[in-house]
């Protein structure tokens, strides 16, 4: 790795590495001064910003398995907002930054682990998500209270806490007239409007790309391969992924996209080539042959297992590689805590030395164990609750010290969660706890411990910031509890909104197979008889089969009714007049109304029962299904997060891959059900080991193997922009956490992610009506402009180039928010 480069990211991307040398510390605000600190407006503003950046972190975590440090943007915005409302002080801004950063630290654990429930055949419950987030976060804060004196104070100069030190620098700069919040707000506005333009208004394509080869049939009926069959190139022209790439830099971005290149330009073409002659389905319960699969279907059927094996190996390798550091960190952390407890305390503690009392820690820990054990939504037993507290204490201690030594990016949170999950599953296996309910409990156990570890490292950074600027520890700790609880109220909701907004109910039958759990829930489906006119179809040169895709896009399914006649089906109770007036875009580009092709009349409603597949007793993929009264499966309710169906009738479905959740579900299934295709998993394992032997960090590469190439390509573009800016501005050290390029990228991420969440929310509350109403190409009908918006790769790339150019210009020419010695901002 080149000198000065940030360490390779695992889960969270810090934005600066600025170690401070050992020296005696004098806080910016002396201990004998007590300016307003824990104010109501500070807690409110911090909570709002924490929810905002927590929501964007949830979005990123389910999309690419990463989150980005939010401390610096929150500190910058706090300074700007309070400056607009009247002068504030540095300690009040520190409280805002502390409350706000809690949302981002919780978001990763929640969004990385809880979607695995969807892959195990459960749903994400709001109360379960809130309790996991809140209890895990509170555990992380509680465990850090007795460690503060030893880790933050006594080892100042030894533990640098780079992110916490950088946040203190920004707060001091803001107190002295520096920082530039306009850059963050500009990025937020541009990212949000850009996302709305393509995800809401549909003014350009969300994903641009092309296949590099295909199979065509000659006039003689012979199949002929053309080009590089199975290969494809694609890119999601996304503001948030562009921003992530800029922040993590060219090296990590390059390694990540290299994993996508291996998947889409090597492994998928190889599987397509060798599987083209197979006459039997391979690892498929639906009977689909490899020769009939497109690249995305091959990825879903085979590459996901290879990628999951690589990601698991990368996470465990990072944990094993860190074991000496982790063991030493825990040993030294406990020793520091004991030494601080033995120190004779003065009769009157200085303001800057006052922590919450040990009684709060003891009572809080006991209360946590009881709450986790007795709270019905968690379904935990006493053994699991105790395991969470033990693992939580160990990993919080380790996490706090590792982030102090080498920063958040090298803190192996995923490895800690994997270790907790492996330990829990092995204990359960020895006790014979292998049911579906036990798998639910194992995931909850690991999620709580992982959130505690994640929040422990962030809490340590915040306590370091407060100590450097002269904050009061007990006020800081209270603010952390407030941040945890307020963010927890919304993080689970964001996860639910993203999932439900992209959930698709897709026709799917499995003759002879039945769900493992048949619930009392039902879903009602509206039907409409459609007397299609053969003459109307012939005039427009289409068949009913060609209408399935366009009508599916409009929320209507074309199917045969009980008597064999065509009917339309929908999950919304639309009046028949609305169905008849629905616009259908034909393959020729012409738009017609449903009624122009045949009369539509209201039909009877159908009621389906909801069933779940959980466990190893059936070959069906785990998930939610709709069945008739006889128990026959007719539909799969494919979740938006981690869903296995990427398109239907030629229409792409919005999907969030959630790579870390897929990994956790893989581990649980692998140990407790033993039904994985281990050959494919082991291919991923050895790919990761090969990279480590070559001296390349395997985890970002493995994430690239797992994610679609369309997700890693914009990250790579952002990394290339960062490389240009670094060269022009004088190297990576010039791009500090409060540089203009970083601040604009943070705005891109937050704006784009929040816009994505809002669009998903509109989809839910209006049953798709509002998102269809703002679909500009649908309103334009059969016009050249509509075809340009929907079909042109060049148009989408051109708009993305403008977004990229703005980032390049800002990073190159923008003013830094840090004042020089004369009080002026430096370029």
TrEMBL record:
Keywords: Membrane, Transmembrane, Transmembrane helix, Transport. The keyword Metal-binding does not apply. The keyword Transmembrane helix applies. GO terms for molecular function: oligopeptide transmembrane transporter activity. It is a multi-pass membrane protein. It is found in: Membrane. Pfam families: OPT. One of its GO terms (cellular component) is membrane. The chain crosses the membrane at residues 68-86, 98-120, 126-145, 252-276, 302-320, 356-375, 381-400, 412-431, 478-498, 680-699, 737-762, 794-812. NCBIfam families: OPT family oligopeptide transporter (TIGR00733). This is Oligopeptide transporter, OPT family. It comes from Cystobacter ferrugineus.
């Amino acid at each position: 790795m080149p000198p000065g480069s940030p360490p390779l990211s695992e889960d969270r991307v810090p934005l600066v590495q600025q170690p401070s040398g050992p020296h005696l510390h004098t806080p910016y605000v002396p201990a004998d001064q007590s300016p307003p600190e824990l104010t109501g407006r500070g807690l409110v503003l911090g909570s709002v910003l924490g929810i905002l950046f927590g929501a964007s972190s949830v979005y990123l975590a389910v999309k690419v398995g990463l989150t980005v440090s939010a401390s610096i943007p929150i500190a910058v915005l706090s300074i700007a907002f309070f400056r607009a409302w009247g002068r504030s002080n540095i300690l009040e801004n520190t409280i805002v930054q502390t409350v706000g950063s809690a949302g981002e630290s919780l978001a990763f654990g929640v969004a990385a682990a809880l979607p695995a429930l969807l892959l195990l055949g459960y749903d994400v419950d709001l109360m379960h998500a809130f309790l996991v987030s809140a209890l895990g976060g509170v555990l992380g804060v509680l465990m850090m209270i007795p460690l503060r004196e030893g880790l933050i104070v006594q080892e100042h100069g030894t533990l640098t806490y780079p992110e916490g030190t950088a946040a203190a620098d920004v707060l001091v700069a803001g107190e002295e007239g520096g920082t530039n919040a306009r850059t963050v707000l500009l990025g937020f506005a541009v990212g949000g409007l850009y996302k709305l333009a393509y995800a809401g208004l549909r003014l350009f394509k969300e994903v641009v790309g092309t296949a590099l080869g295909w199979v065509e049939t000659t006039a003689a009926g012979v199949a002929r391969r053309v080009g590089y069959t199975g290969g494809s190139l694609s890119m999601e022209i996304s503001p948030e992924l562009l921003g992530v790439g800029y922040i993590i830099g060219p090296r990590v971005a390059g390694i990540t996209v290299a994993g996508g290149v291996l998947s889409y330009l090597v492994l998928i073409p190889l599987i397509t080539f060798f599987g083209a002659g197979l006459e039997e389905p391979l690892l498929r319960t639906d009977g689909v042959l490899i020769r009939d699969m497109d690249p995305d279907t091959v990825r879903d059927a085979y590459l996901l297992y290879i990628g999951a094996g690589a990601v698991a190996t990368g996470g465990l390798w990072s944990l094993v590689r860190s074991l000496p550091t982790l063991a030493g960190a825990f040993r030294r952390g406990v020793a520091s805590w004991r030494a601080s407890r033995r120190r004779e305390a003065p009769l009157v503690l200085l303001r800057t030395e006052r922590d919450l009392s040990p009684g709060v820690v003891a009572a809080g820990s006991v209360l946590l164990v009881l709450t986790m054990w007795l709270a019905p939504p968690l379904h935990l037993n006493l053994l699991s609750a105790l395991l969470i507290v033990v693992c939580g204490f160990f990993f919080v201690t380790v996490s706090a010290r590792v982030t102090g030594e080498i920063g958040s990016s090298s803190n192996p949170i995923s490895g800690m969660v994997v270790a907790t999950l492996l330990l829990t599953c092995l204990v359960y296996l020895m006790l014979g706890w292998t049911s579906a309910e036990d798998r639910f409990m194992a995931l909850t156990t690991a999620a709580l411990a992982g959130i505690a570890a994640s929040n422990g490292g962030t809490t340590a950074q915040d306590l370091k910031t407060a100590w450097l600027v002269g904050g009061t520890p007990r006020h800081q700790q209270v603010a952390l509890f407030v941040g945890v609880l307020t963010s927890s109220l919304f993080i689970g909701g964001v996860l639910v909104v993203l999932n439900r907004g992209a959930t698709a109910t897709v026709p799917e039958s499995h003759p002879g197979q039945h769900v493992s759990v048949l619930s009392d829930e039902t879903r009602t489906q509206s039907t409409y008889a459609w007397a299609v006119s053969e003459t109307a179809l012939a005039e427009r040169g289409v068949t009913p089969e060609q209408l399935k895709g366009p009508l599916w896009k409009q929320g209507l399914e074309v199917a045969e009714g009980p008597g064999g006649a065509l009917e339309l089906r929908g999950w919304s109770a639309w009046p028949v007049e609305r169905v008849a007036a629905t616009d259908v875009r034909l393959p020729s580009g012409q738009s017609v109304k449903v009624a122009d092709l045949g009369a539509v009349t209201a039909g009877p409603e159908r009621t389906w029962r909801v069933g779940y597949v959980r466990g190893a007793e059936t070959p069906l993929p785990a998930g939610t299904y709709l069945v008739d009264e006889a128990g026959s499966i007719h539909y799969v309710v494919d979740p938006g997060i981690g869903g296995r169906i990427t398109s239907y009738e030629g229409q792409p479905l919005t999907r969030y891959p959630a790579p870390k959740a897929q990994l956790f579900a893989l581990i649980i299934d692998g140990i407790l059900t033993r039904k994985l295709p281990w050959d494919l998993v082991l291919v991923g394992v050895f790919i990761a080991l090969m990279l480590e032997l070559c001296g390349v960090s395997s985890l970002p590469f493995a994430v690239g193997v797992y994610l679609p190439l369309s997700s890693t390509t914009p990250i790579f573009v952002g990394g290339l922009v960062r490389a240009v800016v670094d060269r022009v501005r004088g190297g990576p050290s010039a791009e500090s956490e409060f540089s203009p390029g970083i601040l604009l990228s943070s705005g891109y991420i937050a704006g784009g992610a929040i816009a994505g969440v809002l669009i998903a929310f509109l989809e839910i509350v209006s049953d798709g009506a509002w998102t269809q109403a703002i679909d500009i190409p649908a309103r334009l009908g059969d016009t050249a402009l509509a075809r340009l918006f929907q079909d042109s790769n060049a148009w989408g790339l051109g708009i993305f180039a403008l977004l990229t150019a703005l980032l390049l210009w800002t990073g190159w020419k923008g003013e830094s928010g840090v004042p020089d010695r004369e009080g002026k901002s430096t370029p």
